[in-house]
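ok so I'm stuck.
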Amino acid sequence: MAVMEENEFYTLLVQRYVDNLLTAEEYEVFFEALRAGRLSAQLLAAMTGFAAFPAADPLTETLARETTETPIGPAEAKRTPVRRLPIWKWTAAAALILLAGAGTLLLLRHPVTPIAQTTQNKNDVPPGHSGAILTLSGGKQLVLDSAANGKVAAQGAVSILKNNDQLSYTGGSGGEAPPKNARTPQADAHLIYNTLSTPRGRQYQLMLSDGTRVWLNAASSITYPTLFSGSERSVTITGEAYFEVEKNAAQPFTVRAGQYEIEVLGTSFNVNAYADEPVSTTTLIDGSVKVAASSSSRGGSEKLSPGQQAQLVDRKPIKVVNDVDVDEAIAWKNGRFAFHDADLPTVMRQIARWYDVTVTYERELPKREFNGKIGRSLTLDQVLRILTKTRVHYTIEKDRHLIIRP
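replied:
not stuck anymore, here's the structure
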């Protein structure tokens, strides 16, 4: 288990201990980890009400600020809630830390019976995973989730290879004439185009023929030539993608996303262009890009430097934001949700895409803002349990239906 995943798991385990939710099996794991000295930081965090990890990388740190439309008193108006343990739990946690230093073999031989147990949510939803659908130039579709490693298809002289959760293109020496039934989204008829798409609950990696690497988030797609030729390299995306573009000054790289284009030579950047998001964003990690809006959107163009983000809203000029949190922009690629002053619908849109669930709201909810990070390797129920600390309540129904209520 990776260190970050291990820390994330132990924090959740301690939280379930605090809430009296451990099952008998989880108690065994809890005391075994305690005996091995792996829970001290998490227990101290529970005692003091602070996160168990440094703020620079807290996978399960989710702090929420809440505001309401109607006043609720000066002391309640706006705060970061700090959860304190009852005195008996504080004492128990302190004792457990001392026992961790001395060994807990006796406790392991005589497991404590939990005060209250809860069974796993029968409608819980597992996290998303690697998987995608490849659409070839003739319209044939390949489901990559179940495909074996190795060569999965050929397009002319180009071989398409799968290696675990990445697709790559090799071979060929120039532009190829497409078959009669090929459908090319761009005007260049000398190129063969493929489309890689990720359904909700999936993500995937792609290496293009020039060595450019692309990460696709859930509910996204990229259309690209199997082999680049001519004076430019051009791809089209929907949804969200992270690019590491191979440098080639003689052949600039262009990404078309919704209402705008991103022109690059060689750089790393993230594009979020989901149709259901109110703002489309391009976040530059390193290098340099020019973001240009389509003529119909009247957004103009802007050149970005590392740490800047271009934001585009329909028919408005492009807005450039300086000193953005680039780690937040690419958190999904690194296995995390990351929220900064995000309202509840924003949070739920990300959850809906990753867990492939339908979200409905029971009655109008008061305004909430979320800040923090949560690992995307958790199940839906585990993520929602973290959010319930901010008084967001939920029910997971059958058929991946999530109901949110005050």
